[in-house]
Specification:
The chain contains 12 helices and 5 strands. The chain is an alpha/beta fold. A 5-stranded parallel beta sheet has the order 2-3-4-1-5, with helices on both faces. Helix 1 packs antiparallel against helix 2.
Length: 248
């Protein structure tokens, strides 16, 4: 006895129940293609499976980008190395391989405002995301404020996990304000618990020997610097500000 043909809508419904949205979206197109090109069952099923794989990869990439909270999207190709000759392009390209993340190493960009520190950190974040790494971008003070507030509602341990989980944590704008003892402790908590477990990129307008003006507490300053610099590459940008050039 010949089995009745299942309606297309019913097949799509079943695929949705199994959360195969990539197959659902491609089914009608692939059926038409299979008919036009006289494809076999194996070829047809193989194409549908590939559609599902691509859809899931795109969804994962979208989730990673959303969670990264990047302030903008600018890649290495958008950076003007001719304007900042103190930066060696080959060195940045080496960091773009993300081997420093796999080794749980840190990276420090030091330079005056507008010299491209944040741009480079975002560019490396994009490279990491493209390789399936988890990334979180935040300013130092946004992180500190969130952790300080979390102490009041007893969510500190849950909140701190936000900054410990990513493969790469980017802390932007260190040095624009000095930290009181309690805020230095929060910063040290993040650095110490990520030590040799996850990479950090820090951008700062102050050279390392001036960090005692940022952290104030000399003991904690020494502890922070010791952990950050143990496995760290520091890049000092000595050029002019892009923003000043544009205004001129």
């Amino acid at each position: 006895m010949r089995q009745s043909i299942i309606p297309l809508t019913e097949i799509q419904k079943k695929l949705r129940e199994f959360k195969l949205s990539g197959m659902v979206n491609a089914l009608e197109i692939r059926l038409t293609q299979a008919t036009d090109e006289n494809l076999g069952y194996t070829e047809f099923l193989s194409m549908l499976l590939e559609d599902e794989v691509v859809r899931r990869a795109d969804n994962k990439r979208g989730r990673l980008y959303k969670k990264a909270k990047l302030p903008f999207e600018k890649g290495i190709e958008d950076f003007d190395f001719t304007f900042q000759p103190s930066i060696k392009k080959q060195e940045i390209l080496e960091f773009a391989t993300c081997r420093f993340i796999e080794k749980k190493e840190n990276l420090l960009f030091i330079g005056q405002p507008g010299t491209g520190k944040t741009h480079l950190s975002v560019a490396l974040a994009l490279e990491a995301l493209g390789r399936g790494k988890t990334v979180l971008f935040t300013t130092v003070w946004e992180m500190i404020n969130i952790l300080q507030q979390s102490r009041a509602d007893y969510s500190y341990q849950r909140r701190i996990q936000i900054y410990l989980k990513p493969d790469l944590l980017i802390l932007d704008e260190l040095g624009y304000r000095s930290m009181a003892e309690s805020t230095v402790e929060d910063f040290f908590e993040i650095v110490s618990r990520r030590y040799e477990k996850g990479s950090i990129i820090i951008t700062s307008n102050r050279s390392i020997h001036e960090w005692n003006k940022v952290f104030i507490d000399k003991t904690l300053t020494s502890a922070v610097v010791d952990r950050l610099l143990h496995h760290c590459s520091a890049i000092e940008i000595k050029g002019e500000s892009y923003r000043v050039r544009k205004r001129q």
